[in-house]
Amino acid sequence: MFTATGMGLPDWSVNVTSWLSPRKREAGVAMLNSCFPSPRAEIGGTGGAAQEPGPRLHTCTRTTIENMATGTQTEFRNEAYLDFSQPANRQAMENSLAKVRSEFGRAYDLRIGGDRFSTGDLLTSVNPSDSHEVVGVHHKATPELANRAVESAQAYFATWSRTPAAERIRLVRETARIVRERKLEFDAWLVYEAGKTWIEAEADVCEAIDFCEYYANEMERLAPPQPVSQLPGERDELIYIPLGVGVVIPPWNFPLAILVGMTVAALVAGNTVVIKPSSETPTIGAKFAEALLEAGFPEGAFTLLVGSGAAVGDILVEHPQTRFISFTGSRDVGLRINELAARHRPGQIWIKRVVAEMGGKDAIVVDDDADLDKAVDGVFASAFGYQGQKCSACSRAIVHARVYDRFVEKLAAKARNIKVGKADDPANYMGPVISESARRTILKHIETGRREGRLVVGDASVPESGFFVAPAIVADVDSKAAIFQEEIFGPVLAVTKARDFEHALELANDSVYGLTGAVFSNSPDHLREARERFHVGNLYFNRKCTGAMVGAHPFGGFNMSGTDSKAGGPDYLLLFLQAKSVASKVQ
Length: 587
Ligand code: NAD
Prior knowledge:
Low-confidence stretches: 1-16, 36-56
Radius of gyration: 25 Å
Mean pLDDT: 92
Bound molecules: nicotinamide-adenine-dinucleotide
Helix content: 25-40%
């Protein structure tokens, strides 16, 4: 008869695996052996002495353990978007906007390892649709608190890293459930703090839920020992263990999805984290931190540290106890972080791992045999959705000479009809850009564009209450022009004529970035060519170049677009883990 004792496991492991068939039980116990490093570890409980966890197992923990034992994975499905054309959903969203609005101006403390701090040095976050409205007021961290946050995360790492993987997975799934339940509330915060239109906000929140579910499933796959070849007379294993303290630095443009993705990936893998949200969107970060606590994450596992990148960013990155940095943002900040992290500090006993996902200058190629209306729609949505403030946004349309004039005409006609206004009004296709300084920078680029090409759209008037910019299309742009080369991060599209498809591909690759790209063509030969030679991390055919879906389109770019970490894909969690080989002599 099978017993767990021989495997060095506590007796309760027999209970934990008792529902498994005898054939699967041995695998289950082997898996438990690796996932429960200490007999004191407890599933679904509050911590403490050895217990009989079998009957107390949370249902989803039980499924997780069974999946891990049998090598099956929970099926992943993308979260469905709410359909705002349905009157009930519209009404629910209006109610949610009103509720969130009633919370405007609230002050948020700092919390580090369960202690609260009010520094009095305040960051005021405003509504970009109406900059007089204060969305939230946040106490900013001092350098001392930044150090404390890393040290507190390091102190809790020993506990968190030994918390069973099944429990960490459960907490991440619980977080997904809470965000799903409060979806419209998160939507509303995104509308008000990030200037997202309803549907863009909904896409951001759905992606955040997807990241939680996807990485929870992935951890089911990676928590048990991984298959390695077996030498005679040995039991050979490969197990993944967490790294240590991670610093998570997200951008403001997907203030929920990217912050959540990087955070839960780190946590589910067993790392503790210090999250430094963007100074443009701290309230959304604070709301997510509330969801983590509500889900049951211990305070020690994560800290949300509000503060400017310049003031506390370097401290977090340079701290000798920081083990890894998970960054998404601009090229210049990413390169700086990479450089700072590479320098060894006194007391540091590892090489820091840096995952840096950075900017883009994404191109869509339109071939002469493309369905022109579909190409216009694809370029339009990619260039002007969320005001062009996506790393994946199309900022270069490269169009075959034979269809160039017709393409520009059709696209310009469509862009002239764009309604720009407050993000909370669903009648507007484009909301504001994120800040006054972003607005000024974008307008400067448009002025440059006037000199570098032919401004065919761009002079429309926009409301003055917020940070609004009219969509701009600059045609006849040379590939050496600044607006062809530099990331603008606003609703500005450069259109360039290509002699033929070969030339179009050359132009598309004429960039230091390599994030997303698309080709509209009906030629199988041309698509094959593009598949081989269009050097981007995310390539799309006959569709827009934005809107990557977790699971289907693992996301990350080449060259100056970053380390190609492929968020939302099967390689991603490995960036938060390190592999340990264990060989035991058995004879
Ligand atoms: P940013 O580089 O200005 O800021 C990103 C984050 O870094 C923010 O949280 C900021 O506070 C922080 N930061 C700034 N200085 C820092 C420092 N010295 N040390 C540590 N942290 C510091 O970028 P942004 O304006 O927030 O976001 C827009 C950029 O992000 C664009 O370039 C866009 O292409 C890129 N982006 C890339 C991806 C991707 O997956 N590749 C996704 C979204 C956005």
